[in-house]
């Protein structure tokens, strides 16, 4: 019975990874989906698709993951993948400030072109290379807070926070869905009341 109940609550969620080439987007996905790390990962061409399910409380989220190419020549294809996405992870390399600057541009693009309800997370990848850090965690955290983003430093190599960032996204998606249902129920009730009082008041004004 429990399995049937949980299966009925599966939420499909399209998730896209964006970021500069070499930031480790594909490595993050590989670590999350297969629990693997490949030291020398070939650059993604266009985009790669993966699927993985994650459970939070009694809800299950099935992520349909699009790992986009970071090369500039593929930038024009990105809207095909982030359009309609429920969530996005924007990845930068903590040892490369240019990738953090690029991540901010991705955030701006999503904010202007994407769905306003998209759950966005900022991932500072390669957190295992602390000695080579060039982007302070405090700076990235402050930027994330200003823009309403989830923020975590991750390491695909050591698995630091990789599952956790997907879990936090899943929780936000579930909360957003519950809030949306609550608002919808409330709006239906309020609209009915307003329509009745509106028609009554208009006849007397």
From TrEMBL:
Transmembrane segments: none annotated. GO terms for cellular component: cytoplasm; endomembrane system. Keywords: GTP-binding, Lipoprotein, Membrane, Nucleotide-binding, Prenylation, Protein transport, Transport. One of its GO terms (molecular function) is GTP binding. It is found in: Endomembrane system. It is a lipid-anchor. InterPro entries: P-loop_NTPase, Small_GTP-bd, Small_GTPase. It comes from the Eukaryota. GO terms for biological process: protein transport. CDD domains: Rab5_related. SMART domains: RAB (SM00175), RAN (SM00176), RAS (SM00173), RHO (SM00174). Its main location: membrane. Belongs to the small GTPase superfamily. Rab family. NCBIfam families: small_GTP. This is Ras-related protein RABF2b.
């Amino acid at each position: 019975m429990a399995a049937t109940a949980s299966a009925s609550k599966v939420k499909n969620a399209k998730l896209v990874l964006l970021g500069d080439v070499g930031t480790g987007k594909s490595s993050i996905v590989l670590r999350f989906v297969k629990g693997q790390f490949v030291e020398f990962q070939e650059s993604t061409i266009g985009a790669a698709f993966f699927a993985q399910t994650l459970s939070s409380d009694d809800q299950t989220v099935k992520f349909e993951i699009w790992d986009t190419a970071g090369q500039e020549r593929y930038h024009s294809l990105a809207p095909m993948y982030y359009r309609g996405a429920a969530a996005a992870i924007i990845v930068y390399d903590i040892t490369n400030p240019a990738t953090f600057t690029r991540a901010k541009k991705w955030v701006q693009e999503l904010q202007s072109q994407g769905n306003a309800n998209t759950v966005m997370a900022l991932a500072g990848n390669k957190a295992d290379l602390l000695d080579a850090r060039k982007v302070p965690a405090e700076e990235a955290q402050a930027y994330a807070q200003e823009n309403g983003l989830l923020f975590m430093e991750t390491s695909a190599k050591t698995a630091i926070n990789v599952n956790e960032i997907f879990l936090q996204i899943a929780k936000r998606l579930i909360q957003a869905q519950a809030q949306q249902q609550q608002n919808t129920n409330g709006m239906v009730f309020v609209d009915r009341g307003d329509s009745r009082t509106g028609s009554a008041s208009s006849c007397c004004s």
